[in-house]
Structure formats: C-alpha cells, structure tokens
Amino acid sequence: MNHDSRSKKSGYYVAAVHRLETAGSANIRMAMVAPLDEFYAQIIDERRTLFALALAFVGATLPFAFWLGSLMAQPLRKLADETDAIQRFEITERPRVHSVIAEIEELGRSVFTMRSVVRSFASFIPRQIVRQLIETGSSLSLGGSRREVTVLFTDVADFTAKTERADPSQVMIHTSRYFAVLSDEIMRHQGTVDKYIGDAVMAFWNAPADDPDHTVNACRAILACLAANEALNQEFRREGWPPYDTRFGLHVGDAVVGNIGSSDRMNYTALGATINLASRLEGLNKNYGTRVLVSAAVRASVGDRFLFRSVDSITPKGFADAIEVSELSGEMAHADEADVAMCRRWDEVFAAIAQDGAAETTRVRLSAFLHDYPKDSVALFHAQRFRSAARNAGAAA
C-alpha cells in the first residue's frame, strides 16, 4: 500500500467499511482508508499561520508593553517613596507625582494632599506627637502622666506700648517672624512649643520624648534665642520697627503632661505648680531689669556647666515657700572671663546681703560693686531696697 507522505508524519489512518446492497450480490463491502493528516491538513496550516501571527503580534507589542510598564512603574515607585517618607515624618514640601494614567494621577493627588494635611497638622500639635501617631497608627486621646519637665515662658518687654498704634497686619507679620525665630531655636534644642499666648511663648522639655539632658538643652535654647532675638531686632530696626526684647523664665519640676480638652478639641500641654512658677519667674524680670531668670532647681540641675548669678530670694504669689532666683548669663564653655569675674563678685555681695542686708559692711560692699558696675540692674535694685529699708527704720525710730 502506498502512503501519502503526510501520513507518515503522524502514522495514523482513518478507515471506513460500508456494505453494498446490490442485486445478486449480498456480500459486497467497500472499504476506504485515508491518512489522518489528510483530514487535519487545513487545520494544521491555519494553526501554524495563527501561531506565526501571534508571534508577530507579541514581537510588535512587546516594546509598547515595556514602555507602558515603565510609564506605570516609575510614578508608582515615586509614590511608594512618598508614603515611606511620610511614615518617617519627612514632611518637607515636595513636587507632586504626575502620571498620564488617570488612576495613578488621582493617587498622586491624594498622597500630595496627605503630606500637606500632615504638615499642617504638625503646626498645631507637637511634631513628636504627630510622628508617634503615624508610627503607631493610633489616634489622639485625652489623658496624661506625671513626669519631670523643664518649663519655659517668654514675654516681650513693653509689647503693648510698642504695637498699640501700629498697623495690625504689620503687628501680625512681625510677631509671626519673632515667634518663628524663637520656635526654631527651641525645637532645635529638643524643646516642645506648647502654645503662643499673645506675645508670649510656652515651651517645655522632656515630653513627649524622653530627654535626659532636658534642663541643659533648655538653658542652651534660651541662650540661642537671645542671640537670634538680637539678630532679628537688628532687622526690625532697619525696617523701622521697634525691637522685641524678650524676657525668659525657666523652672524644672514635676508636672502632668498630656492631652486635655474635649474629644472634639484638645491640647497637648503641661499642668501644675511647675508651670505656674516658670510663668512667675518670667514676670519677675521686670522687677530686676533682667532678661533670664531661673529657679534654684534649674541651677542645681545643670551644675557648673552654665554661668549664673544670684538675684534674690522670694516667695512668688501663690507659693508658700521662698525660692532663690538666679540669672542665666551664659554657658561656661563660652563665657567671657570678665563676665565670670563679675558674677563671682556679685555672688559674694549677694551672700552678704542674704546674711545681713542691713549691715554697714554689706552697704559698703554693694556700693563698691556699683562703683565698678554702675548700670547693673540687679545691684541697683538691691541698693534701692537698702535705702528703702534704711528710711523705714529711720521713720520707725
């Protein structure tokens, strides 16, 4: 039997047998045998054609697929980096991620909005709190805990007199610049800006994040604020605006720190006698003509790392016990020898005043100090007190 060449490809045949009914022949059968490939030849040819067309289509569209994938992957990768940065609380303003694909463009708009919202949120709530909320996925809740904090209050000397006749919009602009300068230095030294009260700033250290050197950092922040304040005042003078001379009060002690208020509106702050005393210290600067007054607790906490001089022993309003108040003059590592000598000499005079302020020897020592430092406001305060006591004693006699 001869076979078609295509039959040899598969080796299979199709066979059919049919019985023929004819007159006089009852046992005739017709058989047909054909290679299987004869039946599938057209299908196989079409399959080969379709396969070739598919390969050609894939080859033609593969570069487009790579281009489309790159078009999608690049902005998605940038958006992933954006969300990671927000989770790390890196919320500085960045350009928005764009894409020609509508869904990715919408996602980029949402991430950009989220960054703006978080940045705005951090302007009203301490950044450490916002960072903690992002990292833990938790929400704000009312409540607090007791911990040691160093508390600072500031105030602008004669603010009302300097600004009452000025254009309100200019007052807002210059005061905002002033707040920005002080806040930058406070936060640069690990402080938390609690609130702005008129022209005053309240800040504290060691909350919400732990800071083992919180009192040291607070003292350094004050000195940095003084320098930045003076630089800003020079700009104000050139602009024809009155300088903002800042006074500071600093105290360290226990306080309740946390979120207070209502479920709709709350404030992260510190409460207690420690906060009240820091505020009182700031106000006492007016009496002594000083810029920075600190409590004995602050002076004891930082040791000899800073230059202080004693100012007075007082019982602040609302407190039962007297406290010793000191003036912060600088950091010992950078202190001028003349300033150190002046503070040491004054502390000797103050010790004599504290021991016996009415003694003639004390008056002589105070007069000698004023001879060398005639404009020293603290010495002038005590000299005036000495004269008032002498007059009262003479009147009583």
Automatic annotation (TrEMBL):
Matches recorded under SUPFAM superfamilies: Nucleotide cyclase (SSF55073)
CDD domains (UniProt xref): CHD (cd07302)
GO cellular component, one term: membrane
Pfam families for the chain: Guanylate_cyc (PF00211)
Transmembrane segments: 50-69
Keyword 4Fe-4S: no
Superkingdom as given in the UniProt entry: Bacteria
Span of domain Guanylate cyclase: 150-282
Entry's Gene Ontology BP terms: cAMP biosynthetic process; intracellular signal transduction
Residues annotated as domain HAMP: 70-123
Record keyword Ion transport present: no
MF terms in GO: adenylate cyclase activity
Assigned keywords, A-Z: Membrane, Transmembrane, Transmembrane helix
PANTHER family listed in its UniProt record: ADENYLATE CYCLASE, TERMINAL-DIFFERENTIATION SPECIFIC, ADENYLATE CYCLASE, TERMINAL-DIFFERENTIATION SPECIFIC-RELATED
Protein name, per record: Adenylate/guanylate cyclase domain-containing protein
Phylogenetic placement of the source organism: Bacteria, Pseudomonadati, Pseudomonadota, Alphaproteobacteria, Hyphomicrobiales
